[in-house]
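Cast an eye over this sequence plus tokens and walk me through the fold:

***
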Amino acid sequence: MTNGPEPPRGERALIRRIALELAGRPAAGPVPFGDDAAGLDIASPAWIWTTDLLAAGTDFVPGRHAWRQVGRKAMAVNLSDCAAMGCAPRVALCGLVLSDDMTQDDALEIIRGVRACGDEFGCALVGGDTNSWPNPAVIAVTVAAQCEAGLRPVLRSGARPGDVVYVSGALGGSILGRHMTFVPRVELGLELNRRFAPHAMIDVSDGLSVDLRHILEASGCGAELDRGLLQRAVHEDAARLSAQDGLSALHHALHDGEDFELLAVLDAATPAEELTQLGLLPLGRIASGPTRLLLSGGGEATEEIEPRGWEHFRG
């Protein structure tokens, strides 16, 4: 008994199979899937581009994480960047570099994960490229996102002394599983941009201490976080991880990466109750003076927090 004929081998056969996966989907512009490039009509409000790479062994583990789940994450990390800019994702390209031990079915599962996540947030997968090599797999997704009429992308560089720092959810311990299943805060990013015009925003991909530092460096200011407020933003996974490795749950909330929550810096006059209704948690304030991150309150001495989150090329 057999399961039917083997699918044709080779890149062209794989591209044909991907094309069948995407068949019947409307083109995002004047060029359908399968040509040398995708087409976009960019005559309307401003567009932004973002791209992220996922590498096997660093961002996911083959065999532990299903390929469709990996594809979903590859799209979701880009959608999180769009959320941080307060823009709506529209179209995406996906590049696959497959390891030689992967099958076409594995590649299709990645594509299905990318496509399904994009569809959930109105971002159509319109093309990409495939390749292979005798090394771990790499997946690259590129997303084009659009500002709504009358709005601008939210940058990192607009934080001002006196502004309040908010986070969209609890932090820390994502490596226990949330780093593969998080929901990008696309709708929240759009809502914040529409209603409150944040002075600065970023997603927590490398860790709170690192990503808030990016805002401070771009804005030329400092920040002081409140221990008591930060304790309220510690995820239960941070406590679970703390029990395993002996580091404090607060340490994990400050320095763990891949939470993919939004850090939003808003004018102090913004109604706090309206932000609370959106699920935002205050953490502290932007301060004048040198670019540094302080932690105070809770009956303990004020301390300067050095960025200790994830960073590539640390050798």
Notes: The chain has two domains: 11-146, 164-304. The chain has a mean pLDDT of 91.
